[in-house]
Amino acid sequence: QVELIESGGASVQAGGSLKLSCKASRSIACAMGWFRQVPGKEREFVSSISTAGFVEYAEFVKGRFTVSRGNSQRALYLQLSNLSTDDTAVYYCAACGLTDTSATYWGQGTQVIVSS
Q: What pLDDT score does 72 carry?
């Protein structure tokens, strides 16, 4: 079992930046990623990174976000830049078994609110 704990969510103005962090209870030997969810909508894929550093991003990211992992394979980060109100959501850290909509392990989520 793996516990994932996110942090870094906050309220920011449009155009601002945030860095989200995710700490794992142990080293993760599989892909990790970020998803987000707005109330009333399905959770959507944001970004992922493999153990080898291969990264993927959702189309809506458009170069604004950067995903990275800590060297110990116990940390995951998401640098958010040029935020828009459409980025307001709860952001979830996920690990292993990643697909566009699912993962084996999930964090509890961290709230990002972007105001105009």
A: 80
